[in-house]
Amino acid sequence: MNQRIESPLDELIENLERTLSFRNILPLLMVPVLLFSGCSQDTAGAPGSDNSKSWSAPVDPKSTLGWVLPDMNKMVFVPEGPFPWGDHYGDGEDSEKRIDEIYLDAFWIDAYETTNASYHKFIQATGHGVPRFANYTPVIKPAQPVVGVSWEEANAYCKWMNKRLPTEFEWEKAARGGKKIRYPWGDKRPDDFKVLRANLASGENFDDDGFVYAAPVGSYPENVSGYGMYDATGNVWEWTDTWFYHYIYDNLKTAEDRRNPKGPETGSYKAIRGGSWANTSWSSRVSTRFPMAAGARNMVLGFRCANDKGPADAGAK
Ligand SMILES: [Ca+2]
Ligand SMILES: [Ca+2]
Computed from CA positions of residues 77, 80, 82, 86, in that sequence, does the dihedral angle turn out positive or negative? Predict the structure, then answer.
C-alpha cells in the first residue's frame, strides 16, 4: 500500500506544489519520448522501471496523429438493486465506513469524464464563461477532461445535456460495478503485474503512467468498471450532486434511509470522488470520499453526468 497521508487534500497540495516546482521542465516532460516506455526516469520503487518495455502501456494518443475523441455521448446502464458501499477492507478513512447494502433505482451514467470538447460546445451554445484554466495548454486538449469548473458550472452543463450530476451513491455503485473491490477493475494496484491501469501521480514521477497531467478520457482500457464506466480511478476527481457528510454511515441507519439516499439537504462542501493525476492509488479507490467547496475551480477536478432514462432522453449535442 502507499504511505498513508493525513487526507487526500494534503496529498493533493503536496503533489501540486511538486508539480508547480516542475513547471520549468514540464515542456520537456511533455515530450512523448520521455513520457513513455523505456525512457522514463529510473526511480527506486517505480513499478517495472527496469523492464518498462514489457508494460502493457496505455495507448498514447499523442504518439499517433492527434488526440482521439471517444464517443462522448456514450452512457452506461446501472441496474436497479443493492450494492456494497464503502471500505470493505479496513484500510480506508472513517468517512468510508462500510454499509453492506444501499439500494438504488436504475440509472444511466456517462461512460467518460466530460471532455473539453463537449464543454466547449456548451460554452458556444450558451455563452457560459470558460473554465479557469482555459489558457493553460497542458490541460485543454479536446479529449482531456474539462477541469477548472465549479459545481454550479458542472451542474449547468449536465442540465444543458438534459442530464444531472450523479449522487455520490450512484457514482460509487457505477465505479465499483456493484462489487466489494478497491478499484473499478478489482483489487490489484493500478501498476501491479506491469499493467498500467490508471493515470495517477504514481511513484516519484507523475509520468510513470504515461501522463503528467490529465490523460485523454478512456486512455486506460482496464480502468473500467463492471458497468462500463471509464476512469473512475484517477485522471480527474469528479463532482457529485451530494453535499458532503463525513459520517454518512450514521445518516443511513435504516433500510428506508438506505433506499435511494440523497445525502444532506444542504451544506458547504460537495462530495468529490475518484482521485486524480495528482493523487496516489490509495486516494483513488472507489470508496475514497472527499469534501470540496462548491465554488472551487480546481485543476484536478472535473465531472461526468448521469440521468434516469439514458442517452435517448439526453440532449446529444
Ligand atoms: Ca500520471
Ligand atoms: Ca476520474
Answer: positive
